[in-house]
Specification:
The chain is built from five helices and no strands. The protein is an all-alpha fold.
């Protein structure tokens, strides 16, 4: 029962969050699928790829509906003097980001959701964030 309530609350939160990400008048729907706690690639595909694209370069299927283009996630290391900014990525995934290009802390839209996911089990929440961050590190341009 609690699990069903958590899933319903998460979906409702996602719907509100998506409205923040949709900065234009276009209607955008991103399906939400359950992901494994340990699978960063699967989480990326569900939460990040719609805007950032499968390759992380910012050309996802809903990117054109956004007022501000998504960040190219494949150059995070290059833009940080060759070092992947893992601590920064974890902070963004937990809390969102105050980055001019993002507009507000609500973007990336999944940040607040991942930060609140599995509140009853903080280890699962941190495991999700850690695995997603590690997957983003594998996407860095050489």
């Amino acid at each position: 029962m609690l699990k069903r309530l958590l899933v319903t609350a998460t979906i409702a939160t996602l719907a509100v969050g998506i409205s923040y990400a949709d900065q234009s008048n276009a209607k955008v729907t991103i399906p939400v699928n359950k992901t494994a706690v340990t699978n960063g690639k699967q989480m990326y595909g569900n939460y990040c790829a719609p805007c950032h694209g499968v390759d992380g370069r910012g050309q996802g299927p809903v990117a054109s509906a956004l007022k501000t283009p998504p960040v190219d996630l494949s150059v995070l290391s290059r833009n940080n003097h060759g070092k992947f900014p893992d601590a920064h990525i974890v902070t963004v995934l937990q809390n969102g980001a105050e980055i001019t290009a993002h507009g507000s802390a609500e973007m990336p839209v999944w940040g607040p959701i991942l930060g609140k996911m599995n509140q009853s089990n903080p280890q699962d929440r941190m495991l999700r964030i850690s695995n997603l961050s590690r997957y983003l590190e594998t996407m860095q341009a050489k």
